[in-house]
Amino acid sequence: MEEKNNVMKKFTTAQFLNFCLGFFGLQFAWQMRIILSGPVTESLGASPFLYGLIWLAGPFTGMVVQPLVGAMSDKTVSPFGRRRPYLLSGAIIAAIALWVFPNSAGVANFLHNFIGINLPAWTALLIAAIMIWIIDACINIAQGPYRALIPDVVPVEQHSIANSYLSLAIGLGSVVAAATAPALKWIFDYQMSIPAQFIMAALAFTLGMLWTCITIKEQPVKIEKKLDENKEDSVSFWQSLKEFFALSPEVSKICLMQFFTWIGTMCLMIFFTQYAVHTVFGVPDLTTVDGFSAKLYENASLNGTNFSSVCFAIFNLICFLVAIPIGVLSVRFGNKQVHIISLITMILAYLGMAYTHNLYAVAVLMGVAGIGWASICALPFAMLSQYIKPGTEGSVMGIFNIFIAGPQVFVCTLVAWFISKCEFPVENNMVNYHWEYTFIIGAISLALAAFVASRVKSK
Questions:
Q1: Minimal CA–CA distance to 173: which of 208, 132, 133?
Q2: pTM of the prediction?
Q3: DSSP character for 82?
């Protein structure tokens, strides 16, 4: 926003809503990828461990893309601003991949007919994996500069509220993404296809980001660059990393807290749909069965997927409802105190889902977990923002994202491998997996995060 005498004007409610609409679209796309990537890749033959490896797209692109793009956006000079070129380009490329991903089998068939040779059976799964990597990379391209846009345009005293509005956008975007298909089925008895849901996500991401880029104006930033500084670019990231941890001793604690938090968070994000289908609805593993056997469980699998969407809608609806209250409470009582209480509610919800498979109980517990999710989406960033030096916002948020992306590697590999070893026999010589074990692992990680948070000294 415009500045007068180097003082940013406070954001109005309308400006906050314009600001967060792009994040609404980003989260819409991300939520669709969370809910439906499992059913898509499992239908192409992905085992639990292979599914976890495919999910590595998120953390690897997050650890590499966000720090680099964040640092680049800090130094970008263009008529469109520092951050907006990355927001819009990420959305457009992701939209293309969102369309291709659920049609991977069709793309593989097209390539087979076009080339005229027999392609390996895993070609469709490879295409799907590549599309997931592109989607995640583009989301990271947009997400880092988006977070860095807050200190660029929002006064420092409104940073907590701005992050809470992003939590609101995350909650609302996820609710709409998750609830649309189940609502159409319930109200009109129309089952929206998976490809149609991904097209909807592509449109939401692109149009929402376009609106934010049009309505939020960045101040022109002059960045002088000398020719002899070119050599320093290759080491700028490592310099930024060193400077990041030199900001304060509390920064390391916040990063460790974030590391454990996101191990717990991704245990739900990655595996909940599989838990709903295979544990709550009792569908056995179908990756190695014949087509006739898979057909017998088609209706149960569909019901499990719809139930997962409903639960994610509840989860994110609660996030949406409590996002602003959490921001207000954090101003009054402190970020740390509110965040610890929110994490404890999430721990209790996880333990409940690990030991009960009742549909109504699971749905309620997902709502309780949404309180913790609202806090996770806002307060760690607010805790960190007080240590950010002007002009380094993109670099800092990119580095901080390593402690979101890094834990996902742990979940995608070790937790996925652990679940693949926890199989048990079911009827007709089939097997199933103890997907509920992921919530026990998640609860332990969140408890460690709450403990580390209690050791952070408020500034």
A1: 208
A2: 0.76
A3: S
Which regions of the chain are under pLDDT 50?
1-5, 224-235
At 128, which helix (H) or strand (E)? Answer: helix 123-153
Of the CA atoms within 13 Å of residue 57, those in its CB half-sphere come to 23
- CB contact at 8 A, 370 and 316: yes
Residue 412, H or E segment = none
Contact 449, 442 (CB under 8 A): no
Burial letters for 423-443: b for 16+ Cβ neighbours within 10 Å, e otherwise? eeeeeeebebbbbbbbbbbbb
Count Cβ atoms within 10 A of the Cβ of residue 343 and give its class: 0-12 exposed, 13-18 middle, 19 or more buried: buried
Its domain, for residue 347, covers 11-218+244-454
Q: Where are the alpha helices (DSSP H) in 44-76?
A: 48-54, 57-75
Instruction: Give the C-alpha distances (Å, rounded to integers) separating 36 from 3, 312, 320, 430.
Output: 44, 12, 21, 23
Tokens of 85: 């070129």
- Which residue type occupies 169? A
* DSSP 3-state of 385: helix
438 lies in a domain?
Answer: yes
The CATH number given to whatever domain includes residue 122 is 1.20.1250.20
Give the pLDDT confidence of 103-120 residue by residue, as tens digits.
998 888 888 888 877 778
Please state whether 28 falls in left (phi above 0), alpha (psi between -120 and 50) or beta: alpha
Tokens coding 391: 């002009």
Q: Is 226 exposed, middle or buried (0-12, 13-18, 19+ CB in 10 A)?
A: exposed
H or E stretch at 449: helix 437-454
392-448: pLDDT as tens digits: 666 677 678 778 878 888 898 899 999 989 989 887 778 889 999 999 999 999 999
Gap between the Cα atoms of 425 and 416, Å rounded: 19
Residue of 169, 184, 190 lying closest to 31 (CA atoms): 169
Tell me, yes or no, whether 459 lies in a domain.
no
Q: How many domains does the chain divide into?
A: 1
Q: How far is CA 89 from CA 82, 93, 140, 145, in A?
A: 13, 6, 11, 12
Mean pLDDT for all residues in the chain: 84
Q: Is residue 1 part of a domain?
A: no
Instruction: Please name every residue paired with 336 in a beta bridge, in sequence order, or none if there are none.
Output: none
CA 248 to chain centre: 27
Rounded to an integer, what distance in angstroms lies between the CA atom of residue 328 and that of residue 430? 51
The phi-psi region of residue 323 (left if phi > 0; otherwise alpha if psi is between -120 and 50; otherwise beta) is alpha
- As a dihedral over the C-alpha atoms of residue 165, residue 168, residue 169, residue 174, rounded to 10 degrees, the angle is 160
In the block, tokens 């005498």 appear at 5
Strand partners, 431: 425
